Automatic annotation (TrEMBL):
In the C-terminal section; belongs to the class-I pyridoxal-phosphate-dependent aminotransferase family. It comes from Companilactobacillus kimchiensis. It holds the Pfam family Aminotran_1_2. The keyword Transferase applies. CDD domains: AAT_like, WHTH_GntR. Residues 1-68 form the HTH gntR-type domain. This is HTH gntR-type domain-containing protein. InterPro entries: Aminotransferase_I/II_large, HTH_trans_reg/aminotransferase, PyrdxlP-dep_Trfase, PyrdxlP-dep_Trfase_major, PyrdxlP-dep_Trfase_small, Tscrpt_reg_HTH_GntR, WH-like_DNA-bd_sf, WH_DNA-bd_sf. Keywords: Aminotransferase, DNA-binding, Pyridoxal phosphate, Transcription, Transcription regulation, Transferase. GO terms for molecular function: DNA binding; DNA-binding transcription factor activity; pyridoxal phosphate binding; transaminase activity.
Length: 454
């Protein structure tokens, strides 16, 4: 069709930099004359380009090239095992557009008004139902909406607890955000080693008993950065010790939605009355730009939690809350979770399979079954920081987890691998390169003890 030919011509002009961002396109009249097309044909081509955000129009002035019109000219050859955000290539932007239009049509007052410190009732009701589907049973009044999980952690770290204690216990390694928050607020933070995918319960009891622990921050499923999950028996022991020594547990279940084991429940399910504070971020499994998390706090925490929350930002973005609430109400969130759970589970299975195929025998690879992260525990003679640099030089990006340890517990033998945004077709080659680089680094290894062929 004529309008498609004109559209292709203009796209080519943009791609080849004949037309750059901000440039004005030839007028409708000039294009019609140049190609012997009718003005309606030219306008139709322009409308298609505008619909796809390639150009924009200014009344009485014409059409202009948008800032983000340039496509990626050179496809990156990097294998990205580093980025930890959700893979948005599987996200339905049509559903987002539909929900946004629905919100603008039906909830104008709500999104333009001040919000409630506790969060919008409509969203909290949707999350209550969502929690119940995941074996997390609570009451509506206990659910708080925060501007991301980090805000919830900051509030809990700084607000007083009924046990009157101040010290925080974390896994080692752990989410770097809590370490940074403790550093900036001069909080005493202690660690317990789980780098071998197990926890020393005698050590845990000693720390609970002798160190005035306010709460234990723990990720029981798909831990960041190791990918480790606790068994049901281990979960029960943690809860029993917390009850014995009056220690609260902050359970960060940020990837629990991806768990293929339907029999593995969160810690909160064992003691829903208040010993466990349940934290659920929507940044990894939905949209990080919304900055949304939900927290279940004990009933006697509500007033204090809201006081500290109000001090930080009064209320969380009402527009973000409406988007998530509408996605959930329309059933789109459940469909989205089902899709990404399948994708991430398969990616992780591929990575573990290729890891077992290519990695040297003295490199320990965790097998999380799903989630975003797994980790490699390296021989002591291989420094993770140097290995990370060597891999980056070969366009394979991984994360040295040194920054996820407390200063006195640092380890130089662990790298984190994230499968969230790596192209599934690149996983095998990425694991080959990692195995090859480890063998080149460690001359004591036989060149590839498993069936390695480049």
């Amino acid at each position: 069709m004529k309008y498609q030919n004109l559209q292709d011509y203009l796209l080519k002009e943009i791609v080849t930099n004949s037309l750059n961002a901000g440039d004005k396109l030839p007028s409708v009249r000039n294009l019609a004359t140049k190609f012997s097309y009718s003005k309606n044909t030219v306008i139709k081509a322009m409308n298609e380009l505008e619909k796809n955000h390639i150009v924009y129009s200014i009344p009485q002035k014409g059409y202009f090239v948008t800032e983000d019109s340039q496509p990626q000219k050179i496809k990156s050859n990097k294998i990205d095992f580093l980025t930890a955000g959700p893979d948005l290539s599987f996200f339905s932007f049509d559903n987002l557009t539909h929900c946004s239009n629905q919100i603008l049509a039906n909830h104008q007052k709500e999104i333009l008004s001040y919000g409630q410190p506790q969060g919008m009732t409509s969203l909290r009701k949707q999350i209550l139902n969502y929690f119940q589907d995941n074996q997390v049973f609570t009451s509506l009044e206990r659910i708080m909406i925060t501007s991301g999980a980090q805000q919830a952690i900051n509030i809990l770290m700084n607000m007083p607890f009924p046990n009157g204690r101040e010290n925080i216990l974390v896994e080692q390694p752990t989410y770097s955000g809590i370490l940074q928050a403790a550093k900036l607020t001069n909080r005493t933070i202690l660690g317990i080693d789980i780098s071998q995918n197990s926890i020393d319960f005698q050590r845990l009891e000693y720390l609970f008993k002798n160190n005035s622990i306010k709460f234990f921050y723990v990720m029981p499923r798909f831990q960041n950065p190791l990918g480790h999950s606790y068994t049901k028996k281990e979960q029960q022991k943690i809860v029993a010790l917390a009850n014995k020594y009056d220690v609260y547990i902050v359970e960060d279940d940020f990837l629990g939605d991806l768990d293929p084991d339907k029999k593995r429940d969160p810690l909160f399910s064992a003691v829903p009355s208040g010993r466990v504070i349940y934290l659920k971020s929507f940044s990894k499994v939905f949209l990080p730009s919304l900055r949304l998390a939900a927290v279940i706090v004990p009933t006697n925490f509500i007033d204090t939690f809201l006081e500290y929350k109000s001090y930080l930002d009064s209320y969380t973005s009402t527009i973000s809350q409406e988007v998530l609430a509408t996605f959930m109400a329309n059933g789109m969130f459940k469909v989205h979770l089902k899709q990404i759970k399948k994708i991430y589970t398969q990616k992780m299975a591929d990575l573990v399979s290729y890891g077992h195929k290519y990695l040297p025998d003295n490199v320990q690879l965790n097998d999380p079954r799903s989630g975003f992260y797994t980790s490699l525990i390296l021989p002591r003679n291989i420094n993770a920081t140097i290995l990370t640099q060597k891999l980056a030089a070969k366009n394979v990006l991984v994360d040295d987890v040194d920054h996820m340890f407390l200063p006195y517990q640092k380890s130089s033998s662990i790298i984190r691998i994230s499968i969230s945004q790596v192209d599934q077709k690149q996983i095998e080659n990425g694991m080959k390169i990692i195995a090859q680089t480890i063998a080149e680094y460690d001359t004591t290894l036989s060149p590839f003890s498993r069936n390695f062929h480049m």
